[in-house]
């Protein structure tokens, strides 16, 4: 067994902090891309009657409103989830009692 494999098995639960940060950043990027895709699809279906060479003022106002409501709703849900997580005890803490 070489030194690299023995060091990786010594800390079974330990993950390289740089790698963990990279994974978190990439996961956030992926979530953001998914949100943009969902928002685009939702607002396109809601606001675009018939595609043309120019966006009329009604469709433009609809897109602006749709995007703003999507962002507001997403932010509300995230805040609610954070509140829920803060109010629940962490599983490892509840085991130590």
UniProtKB/TrEMBL annotation:
It comes from the Eukaryota. Residues 22-83 form the Tim10-like domain. One of its GO terms (biological process) is protein insertion into mitochondrial inner membrane. It is a peripheral membrane protein. GO terms for cellular component: mitochondrial inner membrane; mitochondrial intermembrane space chaperone complex. It is found in: Mitochondrion inner membrane. The keyword Transferase does not apply. Keywords: Chaperone, Disulfide bond, Membrane, Metal-binding, Mitochondrion, Mitochondrion inner membrane, Protein transport, Translocation, Transport, Zinc. InterPro entries: Tim10-like, Tim10-like_dom_sf. GO terms for molecular function: identical protein binding; metal ion binding. Belongs to the small Tim family. The twin CX3C motif contains 4 conserved Cys residues that form 2 disulfide bonds in the mitochondrial intermembrane space. Mitochondrial intermembrane chaperone that participates in the import and insertion of some multi-pass transmembrane proteins into the mitochondrial inner membrane. Also required for the transfer of beta-barrel precursors from the TOM complex to the sorting and assembly machinery (SAM complex) of the outer membrane. Acts as a chaperone-like protein that protects the hydrophobic precursors from aggregation and guide them through the mitochondrial intermembrane space. Heterohexamer. This is Mitochondrial import inner membrane translocase subunit. It comes from Carlito syrichta (Philippine tarsier).
């Amino acid at each position: 067994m070489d030194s690299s494999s023995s060091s990786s098995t010594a800390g079974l639960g330990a993950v390289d902090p740089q790698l963990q940060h990279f994974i978190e950043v990439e996961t956030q990027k992926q979530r953001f891309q998914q949100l943009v895709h969902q928002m685009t699809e939702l607002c396109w279906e809601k606001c675009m009657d018939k595609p043309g060479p120019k966006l009329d003022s009604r469709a433009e106002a609809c897109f602006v409103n749709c995007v703003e409501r999507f962002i507001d709703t997403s932010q509300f849900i995230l805040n609610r989830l954070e509140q829920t997580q803060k109010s629940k005890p962490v599983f490892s803490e509840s085991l130590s009692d």
